[in-house]
Amino acid sequence: MLLTLILIGLYLSxxxxxxxxxPSSLMASRFLSHPEPNQxxxxxxxxxxxxxxxxxxxLNSLTYEMISRILRNLEVxxxxxxxxxxxxxxxGKAFCAGGDVVGMVLSINEGHxxxxxxxxxxxxxxxxxxxxxTKPLVSLINGIVMGGGAGLSMNSMFRVVTENTxxxxxxGQIGLFPDVGASYFLSRLPGYFGExxxxxxxxxxxxxxxxxxxxxxxxxxxxxxLLENALSEVAxxxxxxxxxxxxxxxSKISLKKESAYRRLETxxxxxxxxxxxxxxxxxxxxxxxxxxxxxxxxxxxxxxASPTSLKIFLKLIREGRTKELKDCLIQDYTIACHMFRRxxxxxxxxxxxxxxxEKGKQPKWEPSKxxxxxxxxxxxxxxxxxxxDWEYLQLPARSNLAKTRESKL
Length: 409
Hints:
It is a single chain. This protein is globular. The chain has helices at about 5-15, 25-35, 65-80, 100-110, 115-130, 150-155, 180-185, 195-200, 205-210, 225-230, 240-245, 265-270, 275-285, 295-305, 305-320, 325-340, 345-355, 375-380, and strands at about 40-45, 50-55, 85-90, 95, 135-140, 145, 160, 165-170, 205, 215-220. By secondary structure, the protein is α/β, with parallel strands linked by helices.
């Protein structure tokens, strides 16, 4: 699973420090003192600056060093009046599959859970600064985009996908929740399609992403080099100028007959229900009416996910419809910190153990059923962390606020 590195990290950071799971202090110090070179590349072309994620062997999963370097360069680009456009892309078969937290895990093993919070804080800060950049950002999403990769790209001004693109937010299957601002960008999709994506973790292809609004353009992968060359010649920050360049390479799409997006009416009927229990019950009723392969998959996914995670995400996306991106990211940080600390339950640890270490076993969730997860229990995750050194995520003031996507309900 593409979130493996993240989830292993969260598991290790809270498990007992046995030699079977943790490397020695000597191994940790050697790893942290010899980071991979060239994890992210930066290129200049006239008025355009390119950020290239360069860990193809790890599906371009993000490290602390990568995030830090992008933040430093972004600050320089925004202050340079010669820079008119930013391009973000990944090397290899993935755009970005999430966060690679091996270094973070090793440090947590030597110290405290708050290192994980520090990593996450920096990641969310980068997501916010990219979304509110004073320079137009084009994300070239050719391949896998999940978790942290979605956080980097889904709020950029232009989101170009191809026939190779695969999107999903399957965190609930391992006791986490769709984060990095998903309650913002998924809640702006037509109807209740965002609830469907977040609660089931289903995968979308590039055409489906364009159809539902997660992407702005669809370009065949064979034309990406030509598109990138054309964008490199852009000397304006005017969105309409940039859009015309991209549109010149865009292709028309046709959704597959079996695409769930063709079933939006049924999705709205089911996923508009007030509670996760009611959503699941509606799906089970619809499954008896034929054309039900995708419904059976949705039911199976929801039943195998953490009940707590499902209810947390449902509350997040419902509240996210009326929130700004900044507020959604702040809430994500608070919930994640509770999960890092195991404040209320160990679901993300249990999910990692069962799905990653014991290869596909069903986790023992606490609570074990949706009806046992009370509203007051869920609400605790949205409250301040009870730690003397903890504070809410503080995002920098921005003059160029993220353009609000209108909810399409």
